[in-house]
Amino acid sequence: MSLSADHPDAPLVVVRPHPLCAETPPAALRPAITPAASVYVRSNFPTPVLDDAHQVAVRGAVRAPFAIGVNELAAMPQRTVVATVECAGNWRLGMDPVPIGEPWRYGAVSTAVWTGVPLQRLLERAGVAADAVEVLAVGADTGPRDDAEGVVTFARALPLPVALHPDTLVVTHMGGAPLTPHHGAPVRLLVPGWYGMANVKWLAALELRTVPFTGYFQRQRYVYDTADGVTPVAEARVKSMITSLVDGGRCEARVIVRGWAWSGAGAITRVELSVNGEAWREAQLGPAMSAYAWTPFELALMLPAGVVSLRSRATDAAGDTQPERIEWNRLGYGNNAVRAMTVRVG
Fold first, then answer.
1. Which of 7, 31, 207, 279 could form a disulfide with 3 if both were Cys (CB 3.0 to 4.6 A apart)?
2. What is the band of 44 on the pLDDT scale with cuts at 50, 70, 90?
3. Which residue segment(s) compose the domain that 268 sits in?
4. Quick check: pTM over 0.85?
5. Neighbour order of strands in the sheet with 284-285
6. 6 within some domain
7. What CATH number did the domain enclosing 339 receive?
8. How many domains are contained in the chain?
9. Are 65 and 204 found together in one domain?
């Protein structure tokens, strides 16, 4: 049966139809691995039409530039990583005032099983120049922007140490199946721990650079633009969400509250819950599926009758804890502030 985007059982919640931006619905956020059809989608331009003849160029500050196709990538030793990926604009609607950009709620995050070739292997084959400082990942998606001249290509740079990490992958499969067009087919990047903009889809080129990249999506978008200046968005900030209850829904007084917590800075070390703004209570943590996947938490509670507010906050191994309020930034990125949800008990 075909379902419309606003149907409660639709696999995605469409935020913008063209180019497609869509969230994972609340029910699909409960499993440890997000159902493939419900992995969130972020597109800046129309989806390019590519096939298995597509090649990725490795060029720039290298000794032996080359191009590699999908079939050759598939013939190389594969690596699989379970990773949570979050859009940097997730929960933009929770900022006050709401900044410009896609009106994401909290569903622009998903966890999937990614398979591909370590980027490190391709860079070793090319021979990275001694003075290279970063890798520019260039997508095949292009288009106009209101605040830029001409046609803009999606491209983001990674520091060389991040690019050389063995779990930074040139991905061809998600959940054991070839990538779908909306998720970057036939080839994309996976940069575990970084916000989604680093995971460049429809990968067309990997360019080694000796000077930092200053293109549109590095300096004008996917940046924290505050009174203190402009800083490119990078690792995902520590965050948590309750998934066992529905915001605005009903529940029994005796309940086990469950959810997920994640961070690009390291393992989750603590999650706490608060009822109606009262003292924080520490939840029990479960094992994550990988160092890059969200960590489960749960806490049994006896809730009072009536409308109840529930909040969760996480702390990571770097010592960072979700703030009560995020520093506002003009483009609305990185909102990891504690989020309240309400339920009616009884």
1. 7
2. very high
3. 239-345
4. yes
5. 239-242, 254-262, 295-302, 284-285
6. no
7. 2.60.40.650
8. 2
9. yes
Written as six digits, the tokens of 206 are 């990997």
> DSSP for 287-315?
--SSTBSPEEEEEEEEPPSEEEEEEEEEE
Residues 171 and 307 in one domain: no
Q: Which two tokens stand for residue 153?
A: 């290509």
Residue 259 to residues 134, 154, 285, Cα–Cα distance (Å): 36, 33, 10
- Residue 8 or residue 94, greater confidence: 94
Q: Which two tokens stand for residue 9?
A: 């059982």
Question: How many CB atoms lie under 10 A from the CB of residue 4?
Answer: 8
Tell me how many degrees the CA angle 22-102-163 measures, rounded to the nearest 5: 80
Show which of 215, 232, 249 is a domain's final residue: 232
Shared domain check, 25 and 159: yes
What are the structure tokens assigned to 20, written together?
């497609």
Q: How far apart are CA 63 and CA 269, in angstroms?
A: 43
121 with 244, same domain: the answer is: no
